[in-house]
Design goal:
Blueprint (H helix, E strand, L loop, with lengths): L7 E4 L5 H10 L1 E3 L9 H8 L4 E3 L8 H5 L7 E3 L10 H7 L2 E3 L6 H17 L1 H9 L22 E5 L3 H12 L3 E5 L6 H7 L2 E2 L3 H5 L4 E4 L13 H4 L7 E4 L8 H9 L5 E4 L10 H8 L3 E3 L8 H19 L14
Parallel strand pairs: 1-2, 1-3, 3-4, 4-5, 6-7, 6-9, 7-8, 9-10, 10-11, 11-12
Length: 334
């Protein structure tokens, strides 16, 4: 980028210091030091004057906003793996390239998924609460107290056997779980053999036969409420559901009713249908020990965020050096 005009780059949220420092070295970077979410009006104002927008997963970049963007905006370099918050087709029509940051959050997300798979049936959060304010409420070990469910020998059904789903399966197999999965297409025979995985063409049939459901598919129009009220009713009353993907993949209201009525045993959730709002009924269930709730933190590692920032920088540099960004998102793939 020597002797070229440095592009103006607008960061919608605070990123790790190492990433921001590198951004300022390479570009005319506008930072969000306070880390306050930008309003739609603020995002639109930026899109009308900057060269590159760097939104995060919580920034909704709609077709209307893209249509009103200035002619200088040529790149939306998303700081996220998912791209459901950006209208990629509208960007393509406007001549704006969209990129994302794939392949860097797989292990972190799979780790947290497995943490929830462990935490819910083994009642880890309930156990920590007993000692959180001292040991007065604990009378010592008892053979019938705080009984959970064993993992080994149980069946886990993975909904979405992409990179993260496959990584979850590897971890689950190490814990003695039997691997079952539903996907748009089967994984390779080698992967199936490695994981001793059973493929289910019918999601309905899989849900009725597994002990733990792990949601790991992307959020698209086709997966909205994929785990619907009807499908939740297929699950066994002793089964659990874990979601670290996107909140709207599960019909949250229907899931809450299933939990309240004892039609499923519990849930571990890192994502919610109306984030950042969390349904008060879910919070009540958490206090009762029926669910474990996390504040959308499955990908939250220092290493992961720095890796994401590196990908954003590489995409911007490639674009302004006249090359195709390595993580370009093609229209029709969102």
């Amino acid at each position: 980028m020597t002797n070229k005009k440095r592009p103006t780059v607008y960061l919608t949220r605070k990123l790790p210091d190492l990433v921001e420092t590198r951004m300022r070295e390479l570009f005319e970077a506008e930072l969000n030091i306070e880390d306050v979410p930008r309003t739609e009006a603020e995002l639109l104002a930026a899109m009308q004057r900057v060269d590159v927008l760097v939104p995060t997963v919580t920034d909704r970049i709609t077709a209307s906003m893209i249509e009103q963007a200035g002619p200088q905006l040529k790149l939306i370099a998303g700081f996220s793996n998912g791209i459901d918050h950006i209208d990629v087709d509208a960007a393509a029509r406007k001549g704006i390239t969209v990129t994302n940051t794939p392949n860097v959050l797989t292990e972190d997300s799979a780790d947290m998924t497995m943490a929830l798979v462990l935490a819910v049936p083994r009642r880890l959060v309930e156990g920590t609460r007993v000692l959180a304010n001292g040991s007065e409420d604990w009378r010592g070990w008892s053979p019938t107290w705080m009984l959970g469910r064993r993992l080994s020998g149980k069946r886990i059904g993975i909904v979405g056997m992409g990179r993260i789903g496959t990584a979850v399966a590897r971890r689950a197999k190490a814990f003695g779980l039997s691997i079952h999965y539903h996907n748009r297409k089967r994984v390779s025979p080698a992967t199936e053999a490695e994981l001793e995985a059973t493929y289910w063409d019918s999601l309905d049939q899989m849900l009725a036969r597994v002990d733990i459901v792990s949601v790991n598919c992307p959020s698209t129009p086709a997966t909205y409420h994929l785990i619907s009220a009807r499908r939740l009713a297929l699950m066994q009353p002793t089964s659990y559901i874990v979601n670290t993907a996107r909140g709207d993949i599960i019909d949250e209201a229907a899931m809450i009713e299933c939990l309240r009525q004892g039609k499923i045993a519990g849930a571990g959730l890192d994502v919610f249908e109306n984030e950042p709002a969390v349904n008060p009924k879910l919070i009540k269930l958490a206090k009762e020990g029926r669910v474990v709730l996390l504040p959308h933190m499955s990908s939250a590692t220092i290493e992961g965020r720095i890796d994401m920032g590196d990908k954003v920088i590489i995409n911007i540099r490639a674009f302004y050096d006249g090359h195709r960004p390595p993580n370009r998102v093609l229209p029709g793939r969102a």
